[in-house]
């Protein structure tokens, strides 16, 4: 009998899992609380093994056209003077000509289009309750509908509600990394193009990120905070106040950024954190992507882990019952995930020192780096060789012939 699968979340991990499970013969439903795939958004990187997932879906040519091609990152001291100007890959460990950097919306749109005709999408809805038993999972939706599925997968991000319903409160899995950040768009009055400028003071960073020659830049404000600001989560006014008070005395372009923050409608604020879970499944329910193993933007690997994890979960389930499928998924993927989560503390992650001494040491390191991009990426990015599963073979034959 055809297996029925419900996936919660239609961003990166959800559509990729849906795409491959459909090819494996499952009947897939994706529920997404937003009214459509989210467009726009900050730029994200795809590197190493994750590029092969997009390649096997036939999406690389389209996404290469959407590549942002960031050419320079310039670091400034607290007084606005220049520390160093580098190729961004010198920091991120990316590989020129191979790695992808695209607007998040361009990726999610491409993924959605690749699967929307083959599986059922329920937008503007979400899971209200889950009840597992021997023969399936009874699900009620906030819309009032009630259905039973053989398997449910949480692909609904770092603060996954589905994970909470099955595995319990987020605190058990949340690893706070000591920073908070806000990101929003503002007018590009700086003449920046295909580049980032980042200002640092101890425990504070402000960046302007111009993805192209457009009129907007992504403004990014990151700061150290010993405890997560629980009161500010879910409270936009409190988030604005917190960021404004932290950066109140800062120079450079920050006063203008704070003015823009006041009027920004797209502020995204969160703690910098990871999700680390001892198990990625419980009965008939599994987790994937940020819901299972968000690595934080400090690693730049969240999207890549979501792509690879979704492919490996679908592959694990192919031809197997859910228990064996989930076991295979975790067995084959955990080491790759851990290696990438452990990148925190290396490379890009050391960009935000909290003391004057550490900042000076970082600046010395940056001055010593070659302005040229490295020839090779970090080992962790490619630490898993993507297996071929039954679901992949037909697809690879088609791509080879077309
Ligand atoms: C500022 C910033 C910069 C980043 N930079 C990078 C980078 O350079 N490189 C990189 O690889 N990654 C980066 N990331 C991380 C990257 O965005 C995520 O790792 C990636 O999007 C994870 O995909 P996902 O599908 O697992 O989850 P998400 O993208 O978080 O998607 C979750 C989806 O579930 C939906 N949802 C949420 N709750 C519910 C619910 N209850 N019911 C139904 N649907 C729900 C959401 O609307 C969303 O569509 C960055 C993240 C941030 C915030």
TrEMBL record:
Residues annotated as transmembrane: none
SUPFAM superfamilies linked to this entry: FAD/NAD(P)-binding domain
Pfam families: FAD_binding_3 (PF01494)
Domain of life: Bacteria
MF annotations from Gene Ontology: monooxygenase activity
Keywords noted in UniProt: Monooxygenase, Oxidoreductase
Coiled-coil parts of chain: none
FAD-binding domain span: 4-166
Protein name: FAD-dependent monooxygenase
Species of the source: Lentzea rhizosphaerae
């Amino acid at each position: 009998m055809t297996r029925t699968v419900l996936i919660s979340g239609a961003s990166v991990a959800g559509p990729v899992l849906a795409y491959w499970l459909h090819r494996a013969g499952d009947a897939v439903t994706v529920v997404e609380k937003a009214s459509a795939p989210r467009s726009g958004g900050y730029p994200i990187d795809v590197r190493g093994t994750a590029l092969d997932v997009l390649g096997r879906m036939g999406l690389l040519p389209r996404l290469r056209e959407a590549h942002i091609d960031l050419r320079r990152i310039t670091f400034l001291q607290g007084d606005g003077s220049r520390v160093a100007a580098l190729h961004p890959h010198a920091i991120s460990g990316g590989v020129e000509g191979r790695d992808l950097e695209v607007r998040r919306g361009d990726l999610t749109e491409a993924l959605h289009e690749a699967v929307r005709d083959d599986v059922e999408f329920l937008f503007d809805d979400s899971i209200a309750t889950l009840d597992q038993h021997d023969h399936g999972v009874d699900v009620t939706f906030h819309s009032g509908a009630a259905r039973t599925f053989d398997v449910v997968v949480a692909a609904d991000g770092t603060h996954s509600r589905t994970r909470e319903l099955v595995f319990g409160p987020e605190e058990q899995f949340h690893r706070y990394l000591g920073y908070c950040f806000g990101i929003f768009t503002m007018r590009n009055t700086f003449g920046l193009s295909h580049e980032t400028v980042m200002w640092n003071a101890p425990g504070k960073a402000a960046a302007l990120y111009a993805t192209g020659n457009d009129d907007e830049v992504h403004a990014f404000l990151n700061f150290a905070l010993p405890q997560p600001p629980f009161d500010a989560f879910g409270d936009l006014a409190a988030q604005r106040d917190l960021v404004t008070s932290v950066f109140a005395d800062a120079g450079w372009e920050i006063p203008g950024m704070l003015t823009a923050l006041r009027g920004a409608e797209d502020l995204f604020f969160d703690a910098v954190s990871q999700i680390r879970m001892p198990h990625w499944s419980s009965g008939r329910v599994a987790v994937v992507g940020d819901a299972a193993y968000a690595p934080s933007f400090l690693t730049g690997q969240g999207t890549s882990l979501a792509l690879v994890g979704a492919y490996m979960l679908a592959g694990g389930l192919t031809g197997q019952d859910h228990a064996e499928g989930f076991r295979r998924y975790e067995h084959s993927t955990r080491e790759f995930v851990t290696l990438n989560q452990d990148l925190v503390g290396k490379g890009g992650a050391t960009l935000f020192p909290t003391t004057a001494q550490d900042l000076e040491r970082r600046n010395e390191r940056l001055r010593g780096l070659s302005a040229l991009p490295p020839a090779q990426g970090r080992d962790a990015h490619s630490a898993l060789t993507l297996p071929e599963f039954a679901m992949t073979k037909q697809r690879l034959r088609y791509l080879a012939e077309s």
